[in-house]
Amino acid sequence: MIATNDNDDDKTKEESKKERITIVLNEKDLIESFVKGSGNGGQKINKTSNCVDLRHVPTGVRVVCQQTRSLQQNRSIARKIMIEKLDDYYNGDQSKSAIKREIARKKEAKRRKRAREKYGTTNSKEETSIE
Known about the structure:
Blueprint: H1 6-18, E1 30-35, H2 43-47, E2 51-56, E3 61-65, H3 71-91, H4 96-119, H5 124-130
Antiparallel strand pairs: 1-2, 2-3
Domain Prokaryotic-type class I peptide chain release factors: 20-118
Organism: Gigaspora margarita
Keywords: Hydrolase, Mitochondrion, Transit peptide
């Protein structure tokens, strides 16, 4: 008879959930194209192809970036955004942006709870019954 420890199985499951995949962009997996921009920026934006369209072939994730008038800056920004999106795609709840959202959500809930405790509930039925 072999004795198993259920706690060990739980720990391995938790550890596997906590493992994050480190995202590394391979240029081979990316298709990059440049299109003419639109919006604010005047003639420079309308005449030059400085809007970056970046696609990750294995996942199909697409990023379009035209935050600045400079093509090189847009390429750099597009790659940073692509890494964030791939992090969300592969890591889900363990991605950096998901963790930041969760922290912000908890902060907001804590703030609301403190306000409720300080000022009481804002339910109009309870206020009228007290008066």
